[in-house]
């Protein structure tokens, strides 16, 4: 009686994992079966939300005739130039300012720690509300900046967002303001890692502050600076929010970059192929950066 009861209860209460192991036992070991069980959901998500969209986008970009139509479009050529200006000044000025400001933020003292906390706030604040706040401040009619200019200097401020000459500059300034704290803290971390003995030896040799920066500081942060600059350039190529939320690509489509122009073609004009081709055209610049970056990250830390 006990044997029957124990057998019946064992069959009735057989857990699902026992059934799973029985089904996979002829093909996989227990460890391999459970690895497959847990990896399958991630594989399914990866296939449907990464592999399929990327594969479909590449398929849309196989029509050679679309490239001629997009590359000959004056709007594309102007957006390509805007992208170059955005990367050159947005990334270049941002990283140079990060190096300059890191000299201040590495100073000791409780006051500097408070400054560090306040300095990181623009990067911590959510992206969308911060951009809308700056868009309000740059409004040419009732924005805070033009009102201050009139109240303090009795001058009418420029049309920051509706004049193409100022709109692109406003986008670059917004990008620098938003991301400068993050990259500055990266440079600060690299500077803190430099041995103080090197600075003490340089001071004993009578090196000036500029000489200390040239022969001690910059060699110590050069690797981090170069890697950060390349990574920032890669991220900035796909910076859609800064342009779209501030100017929407306007006025008259004069501030579009490749990121916003691709979305404009794909969704506003319902031309998915043109949108994909626009983004693919950035690969000649993007792929070398990624290859160099991966090679740098694969090197030992002491190289």
Walk me through what this model shows.
With 303 residues, this protein is an all-alpha fold. The chain folds into two domains: 28-60, no CATH class; 74-297, MetI-like fold (Orthogonal Bundle), CATH 1.10.3720. The protein has 16 helices and no strands. The termini are far apart. The model is unreliable at 1-14 (pLDDT under 50).
Describe the secondary structure blueprint for this structure:
Elements: H1 2-12, H2 16-24, H3 30-60, H4 64-71, H5 74-105, H6 110-119, H7 121-124, H8 127-137, H9 144-153, H10 164-192, H11 196-204, H12 209-237, H13 241-246, H14 258-268, H15 272-280, H16 283-297
Helix pairs in contact: 4-15, 5-10, 5-12, 10-12, 12-16, 14-15
Q: Tell me the CATH architecture of the largest domain.
A: Orthogonal Bundle
Shape: globular
User: What percentage of the residues does DSSP assign to strands (E)?
Assistant: under 5%
Structural class: mainly alpha
How many β-strands, per DSSP? Answer: 0
CATH topology of the largest domain: MetI-like fold
Biggest sheet descriptor: none
User: Termini, distance in Å?
Assistant: 74 Å
Based on the model shown, name its key terms.
single chain; 303 residues; mainly alpha; 16 helices; 0% strand; globular
In a nutshell, what does this entry contain?
With about 300 residues, the protein is mainly α. The protein contains 16 helices and no strands.
């Amino acid at each position: 009686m006990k044997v029957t009861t124990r057998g019946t209860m064992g069959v009735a209460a057989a857990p699902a994992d026992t059934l799973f192991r029985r089904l996979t036992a002829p093909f996989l070991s227990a460890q391999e079966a459970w690895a497959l069980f847990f990896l399958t959901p991630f594989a399914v998500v990866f296939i449907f939300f990464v592999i399929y969209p990327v594969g479909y986008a590449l398929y849309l970009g196989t029509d050679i005739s679309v490239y001629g139509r997009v590359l000959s479009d004056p709007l594309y050529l102007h957006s390509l130039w805007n992208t170059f200006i955005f990367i050159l000044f947005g990334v270049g000025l941002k990283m140079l300012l990060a190096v300059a400001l890191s000299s201040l933020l590495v100073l000791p003292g409780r006051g500097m720690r408070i400054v560090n906390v306040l300095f990181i706030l623009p990067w911590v604040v959510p992206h969308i509300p911060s951009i809308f706040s700056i868009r309000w401040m740059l409004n040419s009619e009732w924005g805070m900046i033009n009102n201050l200019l009139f109240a303090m200097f009795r001058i009418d401020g420029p049309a920051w967002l509706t004049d193409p000459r100022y709109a692109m500059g406003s986008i670059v300034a917004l990008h620098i303001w938003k991301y400068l704290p993050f990259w500055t803290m990266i440079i600060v971390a690299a500077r803190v890692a430099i041995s103080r003995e090197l600075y003490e030896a340089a001071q004993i040799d009578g090196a000036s502050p500029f000489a200390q920066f040239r022969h001690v500081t910059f060699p110590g942060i050069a690797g981090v600076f170069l890697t950060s600059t390349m990574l920032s350039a890669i991220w900035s190529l796909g910076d859609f929010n800064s342009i779209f939320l501030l100017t929407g690509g306007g006025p008259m489509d004069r501030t579009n970059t490749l990121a916003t122009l691709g979305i404009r073609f794909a969704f506003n004009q319902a031309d998915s192929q043109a949108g994909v081709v626009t983004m693919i055209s950035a690969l000649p610049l993007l792929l070398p950066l990624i290859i160099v970056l991966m090679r740098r990250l694969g090197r030992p830390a002491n190289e």
